[in-house]
Specification:
Elements: E1 2-6, H1 11-15, H2 18-27, E2 32-37, H3 42-45, E3 53-56, H4 62-79, E4 83-86, H5 91-99, E5 104-108, E6 119-121, H6 132-137, H7 161-173, E7 181-186, H8 198-211, E8 215-220, H9 228-240, H10 255-263, E9 267-271, H11 274-279, E10 286-289, H12 295-298, E11 308-311, H13 331-334, H14 338-352
Parallel strand pairs: 1-2, 1-4, 2-3, 4-5, 5-6, 7-8, 7-9, 9-10, 10-11
Helix pairs in contact: 7-10, 8-9, 8-14
């Protein structure tokens, strides 16, 4: 049996599909499993032990996009898949699922695209208090696979050995040793609705270092705001004075390197973005800043034994569709005080000292 999975676009959403990959392998141990993904999220599934093939669909425009999509369609047709599952629901993923010509094509009931599938599954409301992993698992029910839980089927992003070696070398070059407590803070997000203010991050970094001089705080940011980590780190160093070395300059990290970095940290801090869910694939304690999204939907999907604390506010405007901030001040994040995140981090660091 040959099965095609299609999940394009965002890193976090691709991470949320990894429990399904494991479940499919368990249900169909001899199946050939292929996964179609776009370049930004490809490192999430490259090296996944349950997959036989990862197809990376280039992101392009115009005639180049048409040519690459036609080439992908010919490739999947030649593979003669028995089952194709559209885990995304977008126009491109629906078209590729249809183009596979698989006898069984499973996708969400979405106006204008449902005709491309042979089996249509109701899609949960976008703001429903239901985890994204469970929402996607609905697509496996037609195959007789019921949802698993985070303890037995956590998210999975295998560590890349080359990236791990590079991170060890970079930390050593930055003066970070095993004697230090490594704190990783991701300071950016894909949209303004998920970004904690830069001054709050600065206060957090300064507070962490001033409480314990053995801490080393490494800041990271994503392509949506690549300079954010540098700006916040520079501001924090200026305030720390002779303790500025506690915020080392380590450069930028790709996704595989970020995963390796977090695995070596005592705590990861960040908003609801792809890196948070990559971090969830490690046992590293997590402090997550949730703005417009709910814990029930975006909590790290991993073994509950690993520490994870959600920092959020109860507001009548939460959750929202992240298109217009009704109050206008992004209060779901701007009202979260650095002191609250600092105390949550202290709890996470205490958990990090316990045996894993």
């Amino acid at each position: 049996m040959k099965i095609l999975l299609v999940r394009l676009r965002l890193v976090g959403d691709v991470v949320f599909t990894t429990p399904l990959i494991r479940a499919l392998r368990r249900q169909f141990p001899d199946a050939h499993l292929s996964y179609a993904v776009e370049p930004a999220a490809a490192p999430v599934v490259q090296g996944n032990p349950h997959l036989n093939e990862v197809m990376v669909l280039p992101q392009a425009r115009g005639l180049t996009r048409i040519r690459t999509d036609l080439a992908a369609a010919l490739h999947v047709q030649r593979q003669r898949f028995d089952i194709a599952i559209d885990l995304h629901g977008g126009p491109r993923s629906a078209w590729l699922t249809w183009a596979s010509r698989a006898p069984k094509r499973i996708g969400y009931a979405i106006a204008g695209r449902s005709w491309m599938y042979t089996t249509v599954v109701a899609r949960a409301a976008d703001l429903a208090p239901r985890h994204s992993v469970v929402n996607q698992w609905d697509l496996l029910r037609p195959l007789g696979i019921e949802p698993g839980g985070p303890a037995d089927d956590p998210v999975e992003v295998p560590e890349n050995p080359a990236a791990a070696a590079a991170i060890v070398a970079r930390l050593r070059a930055a003066g970070v040793t095993d004697a230090h407590t490594l704190v990783v803070i991701h300071v950016s997000a894909g949209n303004a609705f998920r970004r904690w203010p830069a001054p709050a991050f600065e206060d957090l970094v300064v507070g962490l270092v001033q409480r314990d001089g053995q801490r080393r705080v490494v800041l990271t940011s994503g392509p949506s705001d690549a300079d954010a980590a540098r700006r916040i780190a520079d501001a924090a160093r200026a305030r720390l004075g002779d303790q500025a070395h506690a915020v080392p300059e380590c450069g930028e990290f790709d996704l595989a390197e970020l995963r390796a970095l977090v695995a070596r940290a005592s705590v990861y801090i960040g908003g609801d973005s792809g890196p948070l869910h990559v971090a969830a694939a490690t046992p590293t304690p997590i402090v997550a800043l949730l703005g417009p999204t709910l814990t029930e939907r975006s909590r790290p999907w991993r073994d509950p034994r690993w520490f994870a604390e959600m920092v959020e506010l109860e507001l009548p405007c939460r959750p929202c569709d992240q298109r217009v901030c009704e109050p206008g001040d992004f209060r779901c994040l701007t009202w979260i005080k650095p002191e609250r995140v600092l105390e949550a981090t202290e709890r996470a660091l205490a958990a990090a000292t316990q045996p894993r």
